[in-house]
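Supplementary Note 2. Why include the ligand at all?

Several targets in our set were suspected to adopt different conformations when bound, so apo predictions alone were not considered sufficient. For every target with a known small-molecule partner we therefore ran a joint prediction. The input for adenosine-5'-triphosphate is given below.
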Amino acid sequence: MSKTEKSERIPLYSERDRDNLRWLWSRYLRKKAPWLLVVLGMILVQGVVYQQFLSMTESGLRVIFESGSVADLVQVCIVVFVLFAVRGLMSYLVPRITIWASNDAIFHMRRDLIDHMMRLDLAYFERTKSGEIIQRLVTQTQALGVFVGQATANAVRDAVTVIIVSGYLIWKNPILFATAVVVLPFIIWVMNYVSNRVKIVQGEAETALGEYMNDIDEAVFGMRTVKIASQEEVETSRLMGGTSALRDLMNRVQITQALTMPSIDLSSAFVYVLVIGGGGYMVISPEFDVDGASIITFLLGMVMVFDPARLLAMFIGSLPSHFVILDRVRRLHDETPSITDKEGAVAEFDTGGDIVLEDVHFSYSEDQPLFHGLDMTFKGGEVSAIVGSTGSGKTTVLSLLTRLYDTKGGRITIGGQPIDELQVKALRSAYSVVAQDIVIFNNSIWENIRYVRPDATDEEVWQAAEKAEIADVIRRRGGAAVGPKGAQLSGGQKQRIAIARAFLTDAPIILLDEATSALDQATEARIKSALDRLTKGKTCIVVAHRLSSIADADRIFVLEAGQLVEEGTHETLLKQNRLYAQLYSAQKQGYDKDR
Ligand SMILES: Nc1ncnc2c1ncn2[C@@H]1O[C@H](COP(=O)(O)OP(=O)(O)OP(=O)(O)O)[C@@H](O)[C@H]1O
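The joint prediction is reproduced in token form.
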């Protein structure tokens, strides 16, 4: 037994489960209530059919044992056939309606989750494994669909059958029924034990599955690195680690669940023995007014009760795992984004104004502060550059300007307006961004460029592609998709797509983060002159390692470990002969040596 199992005793049906079920019902099922009532009606009919069948069987047996009339026997047979034809029709209609209702509910659940996920902060995606998110949207919602649809409908059908047939049997022979149900406490104890264990292990299994999916995603995406570094065996053993963890967990869940069936089989054996023995005694003893037909019917009734009871028990055994899955899905839904529009947020602002960071505090995690009181002013209409050693916070400044993260103190304004008082969409659409991590979708290059402005005309897309020097590649490749995450493109081609997107967006503020680092010098020079035209008269903030590429910037900011250590023009910074001058001469020497 694992530590978790020993220390935790998770209630079978907690307050949280109740709340989750209420949420599921009110959001996704309530509007289908009329149809669910129809289903319930049909299920009741199915239960009544069984009861009527038993009654008919008893009559049929009496005809055989007592009156011996063939006509009566034929009549009984016809009624039994009609009864089962009705049950057959219901067995077709019930799944039809429940499958439709549950798939529709899951469609809406997935739509809501996708919609919700898109609103979450970037930080959520940085702390959550992609496998976990895929799992929520694919397997867990699918499992919930089956659970709320067919599984529950079948369980209700089984419960109704058990109740109606048991009711009939109690009415026919209460003493014999009471004898038969002595095993009930044992079955309840087994169910309780199984459910509790399943709930604990299912939680671990869901987490392990999420990690496993994430590992697969990382291995597939990183296959180039895996191969170059000859790490196939390491990756194989990492994935095999996940595979065997999953096997062990699934074994534990399913073996525990499998305890339910034999315990019910054993119980039913007891019941049959009791009914045959007790019932037989009743027929033999003159003090009971019981005949053979009623005992045979009773036994048949018990057989008819046990099968649905077994299925019902299995359904109840699977409830805890479904509660765990429901809880996971709900948790994604409960994640709240923090970067949202404030009450009264405005869409209009002076996009050409100065961008000012005042006493900005920020850290990605509490234990690693990055900015503690950063002040910077990017003049409107000018080209500003941020330079500094790796990890000094250059990209983070751009992330704060676009509100991918919010500052933890101080404020950022554009044209005097604090950016957190602007509508997030309006703020972000004021920027054309060429970021370091370029996201390319498995579509044509053309569609990838158009992604940032779906309403752009063909002419505009071509112009952007020409300026970014990617038009020739488009002509060569045509509409061919570029592979998952742009795997079929070179780094420079991806970068040119990102630049083309910036040309196409043509927003008033331009953020370039190492925008041309993957290009050869001739291409860089051509694109740079196009970029110069794009940025003319606009506010432009450039992050660059290659200092020669930003020498003509109006203002250069030098960051070091989250602190602004120098600012000025290229010439003044060189004259100051501090960090910038050192970095510049080091790069120049390296470059001269290379030549
Ligand atoms: N999403 C993140 N979560 C946690 N820490 C982060 C995250 N992004 C960056 N950091 C950390 O914040 C610091 C600043 O990172 P940033 O990317 O802003 O540096 P940079 O100056 O742009 O570096 P480079 O020149 O290498 O791109 C680094 O120490 C980095 O490890």
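The first helix runs from residue 3 to 7. Residues 355-594 form a domain with the Rossmann fold fold (CATH 3.40.50.300). Comparable summaries for the other entries are listed in the accompanying table.
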